[in-house]
Amino acid sequence: MKEAILTFLCALVAGTLSAWGVGGGTLLLLALTLLLDVEQRQAQTLNLLFFLPAAGAALFFHRRNGELDTAAVRRTAIPGALAALVGAGAAMLLDVDLLRRPFGLFLLYAGGTLLFSRGKGFSNQRGEEAPPTKKTQ
Amino acid sequence: MKQENRQRLAGAAAGLVNGLFGGGGGTVLLPVLTRELEGRHAFAVCVAAMLPMCAVSAAAGMWNAPPDLWQAAPCLAGGLLGGILGGLTFGRVPVGLLRKAAGAFMVYGGVRYLL
């Protein structure tokens, strides 16, 4: 029961951060494996499942606020879903320990990106938008 | 490279990372989108694009390593409530410091995975 409550709290925080664009999915995966000792493959599946309602709920508000650029969504989501299929297939074939180091390197990159990102152009605050230089339709 | 193609490539890279590692696609896609779309639109597009990528990867994960219901239920419930909370408060909370803290936790995680 205690583990379920801790998992719920981690998912609640990660879901909120995901909606704010603060890397919630990656954080939950880390929390599950490093803090709650969930096995890597199980943690990956849980993390992916977690994102579905979290993103669905966040999207409802983004859409209501008129923030969805559907052309850009199509451009990124279609190749992304196809590549995700390839990535997930490769992950099933590869030994989970083989992916530990590449994932560690990826985390260093992703963490560095967040640590050293400039405020401008990386903010979700009203009035702190990125320069509207190349906005697509 | 044209902006549209750059976004397609970023989407593909995010999907590959997400499928391979079971997460992290958003951290690949968002920096590219924030350079090319207005801030709030970039976040919305990132969340929307990650949804089908996670659905595909989750289906594969469910087939390969079906999770325990007692672990899945709190993740789903927490994710749903968190998504609602985050959606309601989006843009009203300064996230600069949170982003740095998240980055530090990821670097810590990276070191743990590498050692």
Number of helices of chain A: 5
Distance between the termini of chain A: 48 Å
- Structural class, judged by helices and strands of chain B? mainly alpha
> N-to-C SSE series of chain B?
HHHHH
- Ranges of chain B where pLDDT stays below 50 over 5 or more residues in a row are none
Describe this structure in words.
The complex is a heterodimer of chains A (137) and B (115). Chain A has 137 residues and is mainly alpha-helical. Chain A has two domains: 67 residues, no CATH class; 48 residues. Chain A is built from five helices and no strands. In chain A, helix 1 crosses helix 3. The C terminus of chain A is likely disordered. Chain B is an all-alpha fold and 115 residues long. Helix content of chain B is 84%, strand content 0%. In chain B, helix 1 runs antiparallel to helix 2, helix 1 runs parallel beside helix 3 and helix 2 runs antiparallel to helix 3. The longest helix of chain B has 26 residues. Chain B is globular and about 40 Å long. The model of chain B has no long low-confidence stretch (mean pLDDT 91). The interface between A and B is large, with 108 and 104 residues.
